[in-house]
Each structure stands twice: as structure tokens, then as C-alpha cells.
């Protein structure tokens, strides 16, 4: 109708009455300035406030980080690495940081993991240098040292923590078994079909079932697994590898430590002679780590779980902050978040 265009034009010219921006200025005729004022970008004044606050807090955090008393009473020590940036290392230094975590039990026997420090690099030297800097008293107090299957950290523990029992993390041991199953499945898939797994390939359809614990499989999943194994005799290799991974997992689910240790010793003895090359390689790996693998049963199940939990906190806050550019600022903030700093007023 002719009158509708006039009304639309009038509505477009009408100001958004009563809307006030953050500075107390009435918004004009167009909604565009309102959108600009409500945008997510902080203004220059907000950036100055954040910078001023950090400059005020940073010296306090640095004093707490330099306090040697925060390393007292550490009897259980974990180590792990994480990536703190994803840009060119020439601009920001090493991407990986080695993190040390205290997971010593308190007087009530509860474990409260706290981040002790972050140092650049993922190497045995980075860890060994940090341990050496802590002094003889600190190193003598550490009774349990957990780690992932990385020889650099193992060498540092052997050199600097001679009195500590080093323990291979249970999660990473089970993960090694799961990786073997995936590798065997892919190799058999390629040898039969000459290509990677596709939707209708039997082994590809059960790839997630093969990652499940045997006792948790539903009847439907058991039927799918059986059908896939019956589809080709070559699939028997995959089934044997899966059974080996399940046996490795059951090590940590025995009724008592003695039973778990017996099963673990049997695995170390037998896996290396398996005709499946991936399983044999896993057996050789476990033989190399035999002492650390079996130490789990002598330390009441010590693991790197607390270390991984602290790593999760670090990753969460790094994502919330959209990354960091200054490694020392990053270290101080993560020490604060990870419980590694104690105010002198709370001592």
C-alpha cells in the first residue's frame, strides 16, 4: 500500500528514545552507534586499568614465587609437559614447558595437587636442572616420583632423586595398549583393502568398540565385535591385540596389589615374544620400564593423576585468556591458579 513506505521511513528516522550508552550519552537516530558501543572490544581505558592492576600484583606474585618455603614438605612429585603457545618459537621461545606438581598427601591422607613450577623445554636437562636448584634437602625428602614413559624425565629422576621410587603413570601404560590395538587395526585394514578405513569396512565400524573395556561392552557391542572378527580370518590379529590391551588394563583392576603385580610380571615376560610385531614392541617397552611399571604396586597406586588435573586447569585458563605472550607472566599466573603460591599472610 502507498502509506506503508511512509511509515517505514518514519520508523527508521525515529531515535531510540531512552537508551543511554555506558558514558551517559543518549544514543542517536541510528542503531549502528549502539552496536558499536556494545561491542566486545575493551576501550583504551580498560586496557590501561588491566595493565596497571598487573603491574601492582606482579611484584607480590614474584615475591611468593621466590619464597623457598613453598617447596617444603614435598614427598610426592609429578612431572608432565604442556604446550603454552602455538606461534613461531623464534618469536616466543620453546612451545613446551615442563611442569612440576606436588601431590603429597596431607595429615588426613588426602591429596591436593599444586603446581610448583614451570620451566621452558621438554627435556631431561630441564627437569634435572630444576631438581638440582632445589637443593639436597628437597631431593632427599622426595620419596615418590611419577612420570610418563619419557626417558628424559627418567634420567633426571635417576640422577637427581636417587632415593625416590619412580612410578610409571597407569593412564599412559593403558594408553600404550590402546595405541597398539589402533596400529594393528590400521595395518590389517590396509593389507586387506589397500586403503584407510571406510564407513562399511568391518574393522572401521568397530574402531570405538575396540577402545572400550571388555566388561563394559553391551550385548549389541559384543555382537558387533564378534561379527567383525568373523568377517575375515585376518582380523584375528586385531582380536589378539585387543585381548592383550585388555589384559594390560586389568593389571590396575585386581582385588589386591599382589595380584596386580603377578599379572604385570606375566605381561612383561610374555608380550615381547608375541608374533604380532606391535604387541612385541609393547612388550619390549614394558621390559625397559619394568621397575617403574611394577613400582605402582609398591606405592599404594601412585600416579600422575594430580599432575594431569593441574595441567587441565592450566589449559582451561590459557584458553579463557586467549593465550599469553610473556612466558614469565604466564608462569606467575599459572602458579597462582595451580595453588603453587602462598601469601605470607596465610602462613
Can you count the helices?
16
CATH topology description of the largest domain:
Nucleotidyltransferase, domain 5
Beta-strand share of residues: 5-15%
How many discrete structural domains?
Answer: 2
Distance between the termini: 79 Å
Low-confidence region ranges: 14-29
Order of helices and strands: HHHEHEEHHEHEHHHHHHHHH
Q: What is the arithmetic mean of pLDDT?
A: 88
User: Structural class, from helix and strand content?
Assistant: alpha/beta
Task: Work out the number of β strands.
Answer: 5
Main β-sheet description: 5 strands, mixed
Indicate the CATH architecture of the largest domain. 2-Layer Sandwich
Protein name: Transposase
Organism: Microlunatus antarcticus
Pfam families: DDE_Tnp_ISL3
Domain Transposase IS204/IS1001/IS1096/IS1165 DDE: 77-334
